[in-house]
Amino acid sequence: MSTQRVFVARLAGCSVFDPTGDRLGKVRDVVVIYRKDDPPRVIGLVVEIPGRRNVFLSINRVTSIATGQVITTGLINVRKFQQRGGEVRVMSELLGRKVYFRDGSGHAVIEDVAIERNRLGEWDVGQLFLRKPKTSASPFAKGPTTFSSWADVREDHTSGEAQSAEQLVATYSELKPADLANTLLDLPDDRLLEVAEELSDERLADALEEMPEDDQVHILEQLGDERAAHILDNMEPDDAADLLGQLPEERLEELLELMEPEEAEDVRELLKYLPDSAGGLMTSEPIVLSADATVAEALALIRRHELHPALAAAVFVTLPPYETPTGRLLGTVHFQRMLRYPPHERLGTIIDDTLDPVPVTASAAEVARMLASYNLVSLPVVDRAHRLVGAVSVDDVLDYLLPEDWRSHDGDDSARPPLTAAPAARPTGRR
């Protein structure tokens, strides 16, 4: 029987199917345990199932692993995965790790790990795909690559060097912000902080916006002051305000001083409002245009890839100035309405002036009732002078109304449809 070999980095995101072809989830990692004289043994996979919950799938439940898919017996325990002592996650912890060649020829970094199925049907770590130090001074040059067996290298944990997170960040490049946040929070704390340091400011800001506030604060406090301020600059103003609102007053002011002045000013304005009011929930950067602007101009702004979908559902027409706080709000033009008119049509002629804005002091419950009553995804928020100061979207309200621990998915799962035909308790040692 020939040995089956699969490289772990290529498994990231691969679909997991039951025997009938129904999709159960996708692979997020491979779990191994070290052995004294043999390569690490694979004991299971970390699989993300619907609801962004990462669960453990014993390797004994896997009938086939290929580059594009994993086939299981159909039995998955939906209890959230928790890493146990002695277990190592390949993508989260091994990729990017420095190893030394036993023959004394130097060191290299692990870029990929092949797992191999032996004649007994067990999966072990086989070849390592390694990158040696670069030999050219060019900043664009990369070191040569080579394959090696586990027995030919050794790890060195005594040097005090932090393991490189660059390769791990590359495997996360296609993850949506919510999935990236969920994946980061499942990492060991020291590894999470290494990856946070490696992520770009914009990418880390997107992930932080999807995390519980306690985790946001923990990560932000581990970053240097300058980096923390840059992260806050890249966050939506309402999310940055919510995060800063969890910090001591002195620390809050320190970070605001380091932020870009315009970004800091937006955040300061939001911090004036109660967190459970429309002002505390809104973003201060909706799309604002004049009545003379055309449908074509509005659609061009809506097409911006960085714009949140809920904010792209409508534009707000005001008198000058056109940055919040604006001149008097004239009305709203919804995206769907724009599609019914020619590109040259002026927004002032198609305003929906029947929708009342919400005052900045309105409660979260009042905002939720209006969104639900009129089937909307966003609402304009105005001050006493009827100036537009922001827009509150349905996701902002949901974040407030849902239980604080909704992101962890550790609440009551009694309403969750079972993914298993029968309870699938983990065998001793997860074997």
What is this entry, summarized?
With 431 residues, the chain is of the alpha+beta class. It has helices at 90-94, 166-171, 177-185, 189-198, 201-208, 213-222, 225-234, 237-244, 249-258, 261-271, 278-281, 295-302, 335-338, 364-373, 394-401, and strands at 4-7, 15-17, 23-33, 41-49, 53-58, 62-65, 69-72, 87-89, 98-101, 107-117, 123-131, 145-149, 153-155, 288-289, 314-318, 329-334, 358-359, 378-382, 388-393. Residues 409-431 are annotated as: Disordered.
From the N-terminal CA to the C-terminal CA, the straight-line distance is 23 Å
Instruction: Report the sheet-strand fraction.
Output: 15-25%
CATH superfamily of the largest domain: PRC-barrel domain
Query: Class of the largest domain in CATH?
Result: Mainly Beta
Biggest sheet record: 7 strands, mixed
Total separate domains: 3
Give unreliable regions as ranges. Answer: 158-162, 409-429
Work out the helix count: 15
Structure characteristics:
CBS-domain, 431 residues, 6-stranded antiparallel beta sheet, MgtE N-terminal fold, 3 domains, SH3 type barrels
